[in-house]
Amino acid sequence: MTIARAYAAFNPKDPLRPHTVERRDPGPSDVEIDILFCGICHSDVHQVRDEWGGSMYPMVPGHEIVGRVTRVGASVTRLKAGDLAGVGCMVDSCRTCESCARDLEQFCQKGAAYTYNGTEMDRKTPTHGGYSTAVVVDEAFVLGVPESLDPAGAAPLLCAGITTYSPLRQWNCSKGDRVGVVGLGGLGHMAVKLAASMGAEVTMLSTSRAKEADAKRLGASGFALTSEDATFTKLAGHFDLIVNTISAPHDYNRYLGLLRPQGTMVLVGAPPQPIPVSAFSLIFGNKRLAGSLIGGIAETQEMLDYCGAHGIVSDVEIIPADKVNEAYERMLKGDVRYRFVIDIASLKGA
Ligand code: NAP
Ligand code: ZN
Ligand code: ZN
User: Fold this and answer.
1) The domain that contains 254 carries what CATH number?
2) If you write DSSP's letter for every residue of 223-289 in order, what string do you get?
3) Among 118, 165, 214, 293, which residue's CB has the most CB atoms within a 10 Å radius?
């Protein structure tokens, strides 16, 4: 057993503060990782503040983890000490149920072991995430990160990257498709980069005029302000696919009006409150409203390899761990360009 330094939430209200967690010695199939960088996802804020219910404390958040392998168990074959490795939102699953057999571990029928704010599959040992100096994870849930990618920029791929890559693939994003991305934050900026790399014609739908130039730089050919009513008439019936990343309650019906007949809006943003959808928003145009949760392990590796081949990483603002509370406040104001990433070296000092 080793002790890792960490940053943790102790209740939904107080700021995160320094903490320590125990990490097991690597078992035969385990990989021990010295964490270099961990991204800050909006889901960290939802869970730290118990907005989705059921949060467990102390909570060490963080599921966008990149580091170097330090030790591996005797039966580990895919990774060795020194490799660049990643851990995303899951650290284990039952591996035998129908979902696991279909590479959809996020829907494990026994409940996946989430990287933090959850338990290992023994349903007793709490899991703790990447706002910490080290982690030990079974090889089956450790991803290989291409050495060509900047490790800080690669960290957000483990959640923001896969969460946007997976629905783009599921809904067959292809050359010439008109794709709308709603909300230019961590997920949104990855959705723009990935959809543009797949040849789509991407329009950014944002509340922030100040983000227009960035949207274009990231790969969007169009930009529209969702705070202006005219946007919803100008772009009515325009999109094949909309990836909606908004983290707060808003009217889905307005965005469904922007779809072409048979178009799809995929929700990845997860506001806690239920939101009414009119049947007519879907019936007129045979439209689909869908959801998408991260991605399975095989698809996450596929996404990392795709990003390696296309040179795609996240645009990051690197911060020391003691700025995490400030970063949460800035993210809540939409003031993030476009992912905060904790430099874990800041936790390793004397
Ligand atoms: P983020 O960086 O905070 O980005 C969210 C963006 O949504 C903001 O930058 C803002 O963009 C827009 N927005 C925020 N409040 C809004 C409001 N009231 N009305 C309209 N637009 C608003 O967050 P993120 O890390 O990308 O996460 C986004 C959501 O996805 C969160 O709910 C998170 O929990 C969820 N998530 C889901 C999954 C999944 O598997 N489905 C995985 C990860 C995260 P503009 O400034 O451009 O308007
Ligand atoms: Zn996340
Ligand atoms: Zn399973």
Assistant:
1) 3.40.50.720
2) EEETTSHHHHHHTTT-EEEEEE---S---HHHHHTTEEEEEEEEE----SS-----HHHHHTTT-EE
3) 165
